[in-house]
Amino acid sequence: MTIAVSELIVRYLERLGIEHIFGMPGAHILPVYDSLYDSSIESVLVKHEQGAAFMAGGYARASGRIGACITTAGPGATNLVTGIANAFADKLPVLVLTGETSTHIFGKGGLQESSGEGGSIDQVSLFKGITRYNKIVERTDYLENVLNQATKILLSDQPGPVLLSFPYNVQKEMVDAAILDNIHSCRHTRSQRDCAQPAQALAELILAARHPVIIAGYGCLRSGAQGEVEQLSALLNIPVTTSLKAKGVISEQSPLALGSLGVTSSGHAYKYIVDNADLLIFLGASFNERTSYLWDQTLLNGKKVVQVDLDPTQLEKVFPADLAIHGDIKVVLDGVLTQLDGREGEAASFERLHAEIERSKAAVTSDYAIFQSGFALVEHFYRALERHFPRGAVIFDDNIIFAQNFLNVGSGNRYYPNSGISSLGHAIPAAIGARFVEHRPTFAILGDGGFQMCAMEIMTAVNYNIPLNIVLFNNATMGLIRKNQHQQYHQRFIGCDFANPDFELLARSYGIGYKRVETAADVDDLFTGHDLRGAINLIDIVIDKNLFPNYSSRR
User: Fold this and answer.
1) 21 lies in the same domain as 168
2) Strand-strand pairing, 2-4 and 174-176
3) Would you tell me how many other CB atoms lie within 10 Å of the CB of residue 545?
4) Among 279, 310, 324, 508, which is least packed by CB within 10 angstroms?
5) Could you give phi then psi for residue 469, rounded to 5 degrees?
6) Tens-digit pLDDT profile for residues 428-454
7) CATH at 310
8) What is d(CA 307, CA 284) in angstroms, rounded to the nearest whole number?
9) Domain total in the chain
10) SS3 for 470?
11) pLDDT per residue over 95-118, tens digit each?
């Protein structure tokens, strides 16, 4: 049986388990949209293509499955760039479909052409550095191979964005439907490396250490190793600190949790590691600029270092390790726990350890304190969020610094900081994308500068009845820029201040709820008097533009 390529594409999406596709139609992709009409896949119309890419990324991040977005040629594709770059940085499986002008007019100046011919935009080159695979499919004789290559990457241990562009005439060509039978769309079983020997070596290092510390990274979440990390920590009373992206690997209410490690954190974990640790166990943490305090060697000096990562390119990328293990974190920790079975008696005294942790907290001086004064309202908001949503909440956070210091993420919540390429305008569309698969109370947290970049996607949430709480920090400035100009440029403020719209009127125009927060009583009323589970709300938290967190990038 023969079918149109456009229909084959849609059937391919169905085989990949894709249930929603985010995008905006245009003339050059309409054959695929027409085939979506009879599909079980829901087409979600966005307000800007960047929003589609962020939604697909949010969907992939929350579900662990393939996110998908679709646009037309030319500007439809170019508007995706930032969102796709973000997915690439976070290694998210995002499939991007774009249209293209018909092949017979390549190089002739076709409207919105991106073939790279005749001086037109070269889409392949444009996306080369931010996709794992991208292809303009100009013929159907190699279509099977292209789809298999795309599938292999999307379902791999180290996925990333894949972009396939289909010229208009190719979408309408007829092909044998049996092509689909040759597409290997099942996730391959991960090959299990023999981790017994390295697990034994790691167990011996842990038992020989007096003050081991686990530094848990995003790889723990990708591996699903939260339970194993918590079990190892509890077995031998090992304190755990996390990278920003791994907040919540263990409950941050745990007495063994040191909070997140990094230049924008309180300094508690830093102080404990520098003063006490003799063994650092990096689990899926890349020790990047933020986590490492710009690669501060003080964190590593005089300590043994272990690094476990599924991605071999991360091993010893920025520091030498006494033991570097290439393997799945969950599998390696299972092996370590087996080695340690029955040896609980060798655990550090919890009372002594707790006293040391408390001493390190008390010793954190003003040099480490990120928020010395003036942010009590923000802290009160996060404490209320933690109290009223101890589990089951999903949080997409562009602001990051407040939550890193004020929010203890419980293991029953999901926290997604925008730390890929740290692009403004991410939280709202990413949270919308996640909400299609995570039917839990959802918060998108961002500043008023980033809000202006993505506010139009609120209407997408309205159109599809997607409950969402948008938490807006309102200080009428680009806070990070103003902070840097205050600290490093003698308060020569330029390009940071702006006027905001009336957010209450804006919320009313969207037909959503609104709450202005100026006092602690307003925070309490927000959580007790507003529907934060089933409604769309804009929460406007007013802060002073002349108050700054006390950290410096030291650049």
Assistant:
1) yes
2) antiparallel
3) 17
4) 508
5) -105, 115
6) 999 999 999 989 999 999 999 999 999
7) 3.40.50.1220
8) 8
9) 3
10) strand
11) 999 999 998 988 888 788 888 788
